[in-house]
Amino acid sequence: MLLKELTACRGVSGSEGEIRARLKALAEERGGVCTVDRMGNLIARKDGGDASAPHVLLAAHMDEVGLIVTGVRDDGLLRYKPVGGIDPRVMVSKPVLLGDGRVPGVIGAKAIHLQSEADRDRVLDHDQLYIDIGAKAKAEAEKLCPPGTYAVFDSPPESFGEGMVVSRALDDRIGCLTLLSALSHGYRGHMICAFTVQEEVGLRGAKVLGHYLEHDLVIVLETTAANDVGDVPFEKQVCGVKKGVVISHMDATSIAHPRLRSVMESIAASAGIPHQPKRYLSGGNDAGALQRAGEAKPAVVLSVPCRYIHSPASVAAEMDIQAQADLTNAFLDALPTAWAEICK
Amino acid sequence: MMKDTLFSLLTPFGPSGQEGPIAAAIAEMIRPHADELRTDAMGNLIAVRHGPGKRIMFCAHMDQIGYIVLDADKEGFLRVSNVGGVNPASAGFRHVVFQNGVTGVIACEPLADDKPGIEKLYIDVGADSREKALEIAPIGTMAVIAHQASQMGDHVAAPYMDDRAACAVLVELLKALGKPKHEIIAVFTVQEEVGVRGATTAAYSVQPDFGLAIDVTPAGGVPKCDPPLPAKVGKGPAVKVKDSGSISTPVVRDGLVAAAKRAGIAFQYEVLPYGGTDARAIMVSRGGVPSGTLSIPCRYVHSPVETVSVRDMEECVRLLKVWAEEIVE
Questions:
Q1: Residues A231, A234, A236, A242: is their CA dihedral positive or negative?
Q2: Which of A1, A13, B117, B205 has the most neighbouring CB atoms within 10 Å?
Q3: SS (H, E, C) B209-249
């Protein structure tokens, strides 16, 4: 399963080298002509030859949330900061892998036997937690994991249940997978697939991209938080797993181009691709930067619902992932004729 | 006439991202006064009046704050989120209207000790099931506070005075300009209320030499105004010195003051400890653009009773005309 291969690669914001190298090889296998810009964004172009078709930009971020070592204590424990948004409640007792050498570590906290009642009611923040790599003293720890070393949760991707997948970094390796599918599928005109960096720390890669790429419209391939669990009332679930690809109206960083969005919706409906709206307003993504870099571009976001997003164990459904790829490819087929309607 | 123009701009629908109806109304109004008229991919309406000199970009935002439908509960009440800066504490129990003309009311769950939050608000459209409610107002449709105006002497109170009052000023400015000495680009921007998004792309494509946003500013001079604000309704246009989003470029700020003095227009200085206008986006476009804001003092900003003085608005037009004609490097 190609998705498992993508989530196995590390790529915390600012250190996307490993995932970029893998994606570059995979994009080239699919006929993409690749370049890497000075921010580290990977751009794979594929030209179908029809110069009259609009230039389409498909974008997904290859970076993931993770940790960065900020210092080493005298006792050999590592201080860290989160890179991107990670809930401190998911940290305790998780195994992690540090640096290119994948040094194993674990995030420690006081054993339950030693906790006071007040301790048990309190959520430990990142500042109060540390990574234990089994080092006895500062010098040994510093040699293995000096400040600046990146870490990811050690949580190998797995299939489970009926057509479900669990892994870290589903946000946004799923989108990267859809870009690869689009490269295989092809497009009549000029297609640019951008695997962006540093989305999780503020759409930084995309901000640069939008200013130099020459495209007519943008489709952002993402994941979005699904809260369809427990006793959450239906109207607060955002979206549902196994309910199809999410076509957003609006989130914290962009409002979808109304006609591009409705064209997308009718393509999904007529091709019988499962789709749903986003029923909550939260989160942001590269569309915020790409829609408004340079002169304005029509933009829309297609997301795969993802439970427990930004945690070591985020969960998505294969059918939703398939729906994102199917809709993207159906859109590519329809775009040359639909373009006039979008521009109206 | 300023008052007629203002009133005709106070009714068209246009929350951030769905500015189609207000853009169409303004386009109709300014077509005879523009040499070129175009719309960009964000929906900004860009009108050009040719002139030989510098490129001066004026802007007023068309969008208004409102609500977006996220879902409905099984009893048929629509759950919403805010579009732009809605104050949940004072948002409930108002008439609202959707783009397709459907009307409803926005209400609020009993708060008890809870903090008011947007998730406590809901829109009642008279539906008795989720299906019926979403048939009336599908997910993603937007609603705004219904129009109602009070004329109080020279003062007019209505929702969306922010920033339709400035749109009226910009429309009247286009009418008042004779043969401009400079290239005048009037931009009616979108999505200001969600983060000056329209002005960002408009400034990039227009590439102005100077930028000037027209916007309302919260007025002081009302009971227990905290923090105290210097600009007052009825005391003339306010030349912005600073807000959270921008510090007006001295050449623009001083140019406006000089123009006011030459024309004998009473003006006020404005220093706002929060907020921001489209000037924030124009100023940092490309290599940087000298920019500022001329403000219309407005009481009760982001409420259904935003109150401005028509005379202040007329004086804004007069001041901007003088500034645009005499601007020098």
A1: positive
A2: A13
A3: CEEEEEEEEECCCCCCCCCCCCCCCCCCCEEEEECCCCECC
Q: Which residues of A touch B73 (CB under 8 A)?
A: 233-235
The answer, yes or no, to whether the previous bond of B163 is cis (omega within 30 of 0) is: yes
Q: What is the pLDDT of residue B329?
A: 53
Question: What distance in Å separates residue B191's CA from the closest CA in chain A?
Answer: 9
Q: Which residues of chain B have pLDDT under 50?
A: none
- The pairing of beta strand A56-61 with beta strand A217-225: parallel
Q: What is the pLDDT of residues A101-139, one digit of tens each?
A: 999 999 987 777 777 888 788 888 998 899 999 999 999
* Interchain CB contact of B194 with A (< 8 Å): yes
pLDDT digits (tens, 9 = 90+) for A23-76: 999 999 999 999 999 999 999 999 999 999 999 999 999 999 999 999 999 999
Asked if A277 has any chain B CB less than 8 Å from its own CB, the reply is yes
pLDDT of B328: 62
Taking an 8 Å cut-off on Cβ atoms, the answer to whether A235 and B72 are in contact is: yes
Q: Terminus-to-terminus CA distance in chain B, angstroms?
A: 32
Please give the full DSSP string across B67-120, using - where no structure is assigned.
EEEEEE-TTSEEEEEEES---GGGTSSEEEEETTS-EEEEEE---TTSPP-GGG
Active site residue B192: yes
Please answer whether residues B49 and B33 qualify as being in contact, where contact means their C-beta atoms are separated by less than 8 angstroms.
yes
Point out the catalytic residue in the list A16, A64, A199, A222.
A199
How far apart are alpha carbons B123 and B129 in whole angstroms? 13
B284 shares contact with chain A (CB less than 8 Å):
no
Specify the length of chain B in residues.
329
Angle at B268 between CA B263 and CA B272, to 5 degrees: 145
Tokens of A110: 């006081």
* C-alpha–C-alpha distance, residues A183 and B279, integer Å: 41
**Cα–Cα dist B301/B154, whole Å:** 18
Predicted local distance difference test score (pLDDT) of residue A215: 94
The dihedral through the CA atoms of A215, A219, A221, A225 has a sign that is positive
Size of interface A-B (CB pairs under 8 A): 64
Which residues make beta-bridge pairs with B81? B68
Q: For the packed helices B2-9 and B310-326, what is the interaxial angle rounded to 10 degrees?
A: 100
Range 38-77 of B in CB contact (< 8 A) with A: 40-42, 44, 68, 70-74
Contact B71 A249 (CB under 8 A): no
- Which residues from chain B sit within 8 angstroms of residue A292, using beta carbons? 42, 197, 200-201
Return the DSSP state at A124: P
- For chain A, how many residues are written? 344
Give the CA angle between residues A98, A22, A55 to the nearest 5°. Answer: 130
Contacts of B205 in chain A (CB under 8 A): 295-296
**Chain centre to alpha carbon of residue A251:** 16
